Amino acid sequence: MKCPYCGYQESKVVDSRRSDDAESIRRRRECLQCQKRFTTYETVESLPIVVIKRNGTRQAFDRNKILNGMLRACEKRPVPLAALESAADEIEQSIQNTLDREVSTERIGDLVMDRLKPLDEVAYVRFASVYRQFKDIDSFMQELNKILQER
User: Fold this and answer.
1) How far apart are the C-alpha atoms of 93 and 33, rounded to whole Å?
2) I need a labelling partner for 142 at 20 to 30 A (CA). Which of 13, 48, 91, 121 fits?
């Protein structure tokens, strides 16, 4: 680690601890040449994820879009915000774990529906109706019948 004061390349770690947000490690270092101390933060590198939309365009992955979609589906439903945030975290982690840097909106939609179904069936149906773009009442009824059969 390069010293910010003298530019020397070597330093030693004096103290390490988890940061307040638990997302990084805070390290106090001491330069081996000028003996001045400085702080560095070590975080896990996360590679950017690109979402491939239905029309073929690409955009950066945004966890907030997933959370907002679930919030809309759960409007006026007894689903705690913490459960939705946890589901959004699980979805993001699942996508990160695949090691694919590109993911389709269809895959994201399936992951959201998998997490919504156990939380609230009405929210699941609301989300599915937008996500699957039901063309008529028959396709909507088929989805409802699938839910009823799984009970």
Assistant:
1) 42
2) 91
